[in-house]
């Protein structure tokens, strides 16, 4: 069976409270064998770490979303570090190499501005430094903040925070231009695509996809959000990932199995699994 890696989902969301196990079973039935759960804040991170230890197909990205940056204090990074180290120690006792494989989702959101921009930037930088300390890639949220995000990523790169031996991270739910893609891939980032690629008005994401080198592409659902066609308007879930993969195959003129194989290999390299 074709195997897929959903590189970004929020299955810890209350939207899945009543059928979580069934959601995982449906994902497995569709060939989705690995799922990364992305955190929004400290409490979310704790929930995710518990879930990934209970379900070997799940992996965690631990961090604070820009919306919640205002909730951080001077000790937040230290507490996240302790949580990550403890979770991975427990995972190793289970026979896994690690369960927390990234810092995320972190970044800048200038669309909603739920946290002041200077606070977003401070928390973003702190978490980039934490990722460097723990040798983990980052999962980046970038919404209406392309220039500011690039400035911060370039500064981090200049300061030696990104590994030259492995991908620096992934730009989650990429909504930027095709022209920006090489500026990000040159810094060592992969680019994540999800449901909007299947929408009727998807000219911009399709153009961006066509600018991404095949070895820098990963797929994600962002479940329960951004549900692909033909289920748009309903709750998203990881079992819908192959629908996105089929659209990518159509756009790229490749076989679906080839897309699954390439994007899964990219994800394994990204998260150093």
Keywords:
273 residues, alpha/beta, TIM Barrel, eight-stranded parallel beta sheet, 9 helices, 41% helix, 16% strand, globular
Choose one word for the global shape.
globular
Can you give the mean pLDDT? 97
Number of continuous helical runs: 9
Structural class: alpha/beta
The CATH architecture would be Alpha-Beta Barrel
What is the ordering of alpha helices and beta strands?
EHEHEHEHEHEHEHEHH
How does the major sheet shape up? 8 strands, parallel
Given this structure, which CATH class is correct? Alpha Beta
What is the end-to-end distance?
20 Å
The stretches of 5 or more residues where confidence is low (pLDDT under 50) are none
Count of separate structural domains: 1
Instruction: Kindly estimate the percentage of residues that lie in beta strands according to DSSP.
Output: 15-25%
Task: Kindly state the percentage of residues in helix.
Answer: 40-55%
Instruction: Fill in the CATH topology.
Output: TIM Barrel
Report the strand count. 8
Oligomer: single chain
Strand order within the widest sheet? 1-2-3-4-5-6-7-8
The radius of gyration computed from the alpha-carbon positions, rounded to a whole number of angstroms, is 17 Å
Protein model, in words:
With 273 residues, the chain is an alpha/beta fold. It has one domain: Metal-dependent hydrolases (TIM Barrel), CATH 3.20.20.140. The chain has nine helices and eight strands. The chain has an eight-stranded parallel β-sheet with strand order 1-2-3-4-5-6-7-8. Strand 5, helix 5 (146-158) and strand 6 (169-171) form a beta-alpha-beta unit. The two termini are 20 Å apart.
């Amino acid at each position: 069976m074709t195997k897929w890696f959903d590189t970004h989902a929020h299955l810890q969301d209350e939207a899945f409270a009543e059928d979580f196990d069934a959601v995982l079973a449906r994902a497995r039935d569709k060939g989705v064998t690995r799922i990364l759960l992305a955190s929004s804040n400290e409490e979310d991170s704790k929930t995710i770490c518990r879930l990934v230890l209970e379900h070997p197909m799940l992996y965690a990205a631990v961090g604070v979303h820009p919306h919640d940056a205002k909730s951080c204090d001077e000790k937040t990074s230290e507490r996240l570090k302790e949580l990550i180290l403890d979770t991975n120690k427990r995972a190793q006792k289970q026979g896994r190499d690690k369960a927390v494989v990234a810092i995320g989702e972190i970044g800048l959101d200038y669309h909603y501005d739920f946290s002041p921009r200077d606070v977003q930037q401070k928390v973003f930088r702190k978490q980039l430094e934490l990722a460097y300390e723990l040798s983990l890639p980052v999962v980046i949220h970038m919404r209406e903040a392309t220039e500011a995000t690039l400035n911060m990523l370039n500064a981090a790169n200049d300061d030696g925070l990104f590994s030259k031996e492995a991908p620096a991270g992934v730009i989650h739910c990429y909504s930027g231009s095709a022209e920006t893609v090489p500026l990000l891939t040159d810094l060592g980032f992969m680019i994540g695509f999800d449901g909007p690629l299947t929408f009727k008005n998807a000219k911009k994401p399709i153009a961006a996809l066509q600018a991404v080198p095949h070895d820098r592409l990963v797929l994600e659902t962002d479940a329960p959000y951004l549900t692909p066609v033909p289920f748009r308007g309903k709750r998203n879930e990881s079992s819908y990932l192959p629908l996105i993969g089929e659209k990518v195959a159509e756009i790229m003129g490749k076989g679906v199995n080839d897309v699954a194989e390439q994007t899964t290999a990219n994800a394994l390299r990204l998260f150093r699994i």
